[in-house]
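WARN no homologs supplied; continuing
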Amino acid sequence: MAVNINKVYETVLYVLNKEQRGYIPPTEFNSLAELVQNEIFQSYLPDGNQLNRQNQNNTQNSTEFFNIYENNRYKLAPFERDISFVYNNTYACWYPSIAQGAIRLLGIIISEYNSSTNNQGVVVQPSLNPIIRSITELTSKVNYETLIRSKLTVPTQKNPLAYQYILPSNNTVNISSVVLKINPTPDSLSVNCLLQPSTPSWGFQTGTLGQYLYTPNLSSNFQLDISEEYNLIVGILKYAGVIINDPTVIEVAASEAQQVQVNEKS
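OK structure emitted
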């Protein structure tokens, strides 16, 4: 379940106004909301790496609902999606079929071949079942160039090879995302991607007295799990304290955020 942006904004305003500490208008709140959501989202990756080491050392609680590594993976699950890539003949590369900048990380790459022979003309699968779906190894450009030149390591339809890069900014097809070079060239390509969260927004209309009226159909909730509601509020309050120049708000919010992190990782 996503976090309701109106509830977060109302809570932030309540805390700030409780002791007349200031006010954050919607436009500034939306900027802080995006910043804090991205901070929390980015923290899942190093946190997951740290927690995975506990799994490997058998020091992780494996009880259902109390495995914090799996809980961390659960928070990332809504951002995982299989994305189809499109082939561009001009640059002989594959690029994502979704909006530029939406992809945070590439996961498993699946190359699909409709032919029963590889790029050397060698039969690799009986013609009765010619479709081959292969996990593609992603490597560096240096390794890629080395491996495709060796007879022992040349890529095949069962063992394709890929590297990622960015086209020059003046490319003629206006592709600014990371693209993939695949050898041998597949007939279709899909990649399990980790997507960036969409931008949260507290949408409003102006009332007759000049007040801001919350408008749900103009708003976008946070994409983070409901368990992050408290962290979002505290994070926004921390930056709000900077804007209104109130060190007390900053100190209290920062202390709360630090305690939450300690509790989650202990």
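The first helix runs from residue 5 to 18.
OK
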